[in-house]
Design goal:
Number of strands: 8
Order of helices and strands: HHEEEEEEEE
CATH topology: Lipocalin
CATH class: Mainly Beta
CATH architecture: Beta Barrel
Largest sheet: 8 strands, antiparallel, barrel
Distance between the termini: 54 Å
Strand content: 35-45%
Structural class: mainly beta
Radius of gyration: 16 Å
């Protein structure tokens, strides 16, 4: 494959364009309306692929609150915005990932929810809990 073509294919894959959720995801991905229904007003309690414990509360107005503990024991908290675009959950936090927006594929089996990076690598997994079950929005205005 010519180098220019290889670079173009890599850029398309990184952007999540043209390849869908990829071959790594074995379960059907949720559609945009299903993601909205599952997440809006609820909390994801789980772990990242890197081993951090994390809670994410998806407020219906598009605000997202995150709190957790890295594998090293360091606690973190952040807030940002979330949306559903092209059948993916998109988040942009104030500090996490340096304010870079990330859109991820979502699968669900019962209460278990999994997210996948644009190339289909697992990024987080957990269970959906109703409402702000971890009090992440307490005192936020």
């Amino acid at each position: 494959m010519p180098p220019a073509l290889a670079v173009a294919a890599l850029l398309l894959a990184m952007a999540g364009c043209g390849f869908g959720p990829g071959q790594r995801i074995k379960q059907p991905v949720l559609t945009g309306p299903a993601i909205q229904e599952v997440l809006a007003g609820n909390t994801l309690h789980g772990r990242t692929a890197a081993g951090a414990a994390i809670d994410l509360y998806y407020r219906p107005d598009g605000t997202v609150f995150a709190a957790g503990r890295e594998r090293s024991g360091v606690a973190f908290a952040d807030r940002g915005r979330w949306s559903v675009e092209d059948d993916r959950i998109c988040t942009r936090f104030q500090a996490i990932r340096g304010r870079v927006k990330l859109c991820e594929w979502v699968t669900q089996s019962g209460e278990d929810l999994r997210t996948y990076e644009p190339l289909g690598r697992p990024s987080a997994s957990g269970v959906i809990e109703p409402g702000d079950s971890r009090g992440l929005d307490a005192g936020a205005g």
